[in-house]
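Risk register update: the risk of archive-format incompatibility is retired. Evidence:
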Amino acid sequence: MTGTVVVSQLGARMHYAVPRIFASEGQLAHFYTDICATKSWPRMVNRLPKSLLPSSVQRLVGRVPKGVAPELISTFPGFGIRSAVRRLRLANVIEETNHAVWAGSEFSRLVASSGFHGAAGLYAFAGDALEQMVAAKQQGMWTAVEQMIAPRDVVEELVKREQQSFPDWAGPHTDNQYAQAFAEREKAEWELADIIICPSDFVRRNVIALGGRAERCVVVPYGIDPQFPPQEIIRIGGPLRVLTVGQVGLRKGSPYVAEAARLLGTSATFRMAGPSSLSERVMAQLSKHVELRGIVPRAEMAEEYDWADVFLLPSICEGSATAIYEALAAGLPVICTENAGSVVRDGIDGFVVPIRDGEAIAKAVATLTNNVGMRAAMSESAVERAADFTVKRYGERLLAALSVLPAQRRAPTGCVA
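Archived output:
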């Protein structure tokens, strides 16, 4: 593509992959975010010894958009601090959704009022983009919105069913009065967008089902730069080791991990690495069948992947789980659902099982337990598959998807539908 782009993004998702991609091509007009370590007070705090800083501050000042020149970055540290403080007080998913609506709209207004630096287009993220997209359209710019996960209406419906099936895990279901406001923001953003970037077919299909225009929806899978070396030896003997990474809870399909572990008994060992907000009673029940590792620091994740023979993520709803890309690069056959939005090919790199099906998971694990040759072939295929989903390839796919957009601003419309 030609022309320059403004990118706006809350947080450091995917290590700032999108602004870095445009910057590497000389096409980043400007980058807006809440807080990063190269601007304002975090830049000064970052000079202090990390041992003196609380872990929450360490995470904030550790946000470094490598490859993006500081002069191309604007932050809103006051807003970022208010948002961080509010997040500390959130007690449940309803409060989290209320915060997401507030933070997305406030951040978007700040970007809109700060200007677009002569760019031809705007790249923003679903839920955080509406006000700036309206302003960009009024100035004749093209707009792209990335739908990082399935639409909020879909998330709510899928998780609601899980809450009804497992009330002990989440308590009685309570309608989320803020979810509709978030969903309406998404739909308004789709209507304004010249292109809707979806990380998987699962996301694209659901965007279209809820009113997104099919001709505007493009699938661009994510990519990672492998940090965990692939296993060189296929372990033989003993129970198969099955690893799950991510938030322990209903959306990640954790009850079905437990069910599969119970069905398989001593023939497989299951481990979960990730945070949890479940009650002590539910965690105690879960730990009867699954080893719970809790939050594992990034620097120690290589040991988790090295421990495992197989990676499992039976998610109910995702965008495209980056943990699966990491597992493939580590040479692990992957068992996942279609709703995980993965690039796993069923029967080649692992198995794609139905959602809500602990028996199907157990069958897939048993198949890999009893067929070392298949496991070895899938491990080799997983590494080859991951090689096609690096950050470089992600950038190439993203730029190709955006290549149809104009290089210059159009004449301002003065009115946006």
